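Cross-check.
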Amino acid sequence: METERDIFYKAFLERDSSFEGVFVVGVKTTGIFCRPTCPAKPKLENIEFYTSAREAMLNGYRPCKVCKPLEKMGNPPSDIKRLLKYMEENPTIKIKDAGLIELGLEPNQVRRWFLKNYKQTFHAYQRMYRANNAFQRFQSDQSVTDVAYDSGYDSLSGFNSMFKNIIGASPQKSKDTKIVNMAHIETDLGMMIAAATDKGICMFEFADYKLLELELRQLAASFKAPLVQGDNPHFITLREQLEQYFKGERKNFDIPLDLVGTEFQKKAWLGLLQIPYGCTTTYAKQAELLGKPSAVRAVANANGKNKISIILPCHRVIGADGTLTGYGGGIWRKKKLLEFEKKNIAAK
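Predicted model, tokenized:
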């Protein structure tokens, strides 16, 4: 019978990202500790497993410089954060390689990071960001010419072509066009992808969720609108409330939502808001609260299609036998969220 140590070592050898947050690996021969996904492959007799980086450091290990286990999984390093902040403050500036170098960044490293983490080139990300900024300015009746030249384009034709390719309509016709904004949001549990319309948040998923691309395509089809990287007022509220939540200062979110799903799914998702902070319920009890005690399977399926993690707390629903059932962000994140909430209640 496999022991926990055997399971962990197998996951470590396979660099299984689903075990991120479950354990870290202390390497006796080097004195460092690593993530489960680190490329290092020491022998089983030379390693120890710990439940957290803190535990590993208390036992004398220092963090690996290759896999950087102290960094939040998937979240941007400090130099990329600085670049994103610069773009936010200067949305009309086109940043070329020379500009990256002036900012103290190595262009090839920036390109590799965007391809790995955002699944697109840095310049494609910039184009979407600038198109979104232009779209917002057109909504306030600014002229196409002014916006085009402010965005760094030397010709209206080049700007019009870029804008139409991303937004799906020419600048002149964009006032009646609908778009869905996207943003990468850093959290204590790793990078997450948020999407929002003018009505509210319509998706909030972990960036490593296996069905993320499918959900994004479904969103675009449901709203009949392109997904465009850029700012949205609801993202400001989302970031503020998430920070409060992870500090233990907020138990309930009151951010506007724009749910996409069947009427039954929407009722099931909104029913999740009735589960008290720090508590858990079962699919059967959730079905009873909806007035459909026989719809346990349908409720479980609806929860599995919940596109708004944490805010609509499907992590608080567990199996009838008390086990932690499937969670799109990974069972380890579900465990962390439940432990965090219970610990926060106990501390009050």
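The first helix runs from residue 4 to 13. The mean pLDDT is 89. Passed to J.P. for a second look.
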